[in-house]
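User: Can you predict the 3D structure for this chain?
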Amino acid sequence: MGSQWGYDRTHLRAKHEGYRSRAAYKLLEIQHKFAIIRPDDNIVDLGAAPGSWLQIERTLTSAKVVGIDLNPIAPLDGVETIEGDLNDPEVQEKVRSMLGVVNVVVCDAAPKLSGHKSYDQARIIELNEQALMFACKVLKQGGNFVVKSFQGTDFPGLYAMTKEHFYSVKTCITKSTRKGSTELYIVAKNFVG
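Assistant: Here is the predicted structure, written as C-alpha cells:
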C-alpha cells in the first residue's frame, strides 16, 4: 500500500498503460456512470495539464478536443491546446472560434495547496466557480459540465449555484480517488442555456 502521496497501484497502472496520470481512470469512471461525452461532442478541458483527461477524451469523441492550462501541455495527436487563463476573455473567444459549438466542458484542475484547510477550500471553490462561469459562457444549451471539487463548508453553495444552470446535477466520488481525500466531482448535465 502506497502513502497518500506515493506511487500506489493506480499510479503505477496509469504509467504502465501509457496515461499521463491516475486521473485518466476518474474520467473513464465518470463517463461510464453518467455518459457525459457523446461520440460527436466538441470538448473543452480546463486545467488540462498534464493531459490524461485529454488522452481519454480523444478516444470518446471524433469531434474537436481543446485543452486549456496556465502551463504548457505536451502535444497529443488530435488535440489542440491553449496556454492561458480560463478567465481571460481572449481565451474564451479563441475557444468559440476554434470549436463553434461547445458540447462539454470538464475541469480536473486544483490550485496549489498551502496546507491551510480553510484557505485552500476557499481557493478551490473559487476555481470551481470560475470553471462554472466559463462553462456558462461557452456551452450550448443541453451541454454537460464536470468539475473536480472538495467537500467542505463552501461546497453546498457551489453545488446550489451549479443547479441553477443545469437540469441534472449529481456528485461522484471515484474509485481512483486516494483514500482519505475529500475530492469529489460535480457532474452537471443538460445546460439550461
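The chain has a mean pLDDT of 89. The CA atoms of residues 82 and 142 lie 25 Å apart.
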